[in-house]
Amino acid sequence: MKWRERKQKETSTDEANETRLKTELPDGYLENGWIRRKYKTSGWKSALMVVNTAGH
Predict the structure, then answer these.
(1) What residues contact residue 8 under an 8 Å CB cut-off, 6+ apart?
(2) What pTM was computed for the model?
(3) Which of 5, 20, 30, 47 could cross-link with 41 by S-S, CB 3.0 to 4.6 Å?
(4) In a structure prediction context, what are the per-residue pLDDT tens digits for the chain, which is 56 residues long?
């Protein structure tokens, strides 16, 4: 993914976001204006490792 400079205030529709998510983040989904993704782990220790990795 290549970052680009935003030249003006941009808005997009939920449909456009859904389409882009399908191609760029297939495991993600749009919910109430937020991009989300669910992870399943084997327990609290591995869940904590995932959270720490994402936070890092």
Answers:
(1) none
(2) 0.54
(3) 47
(4) 577 777 777 778 888 888 888 999 889 888 888 889 888 999 999 999 999 998 88
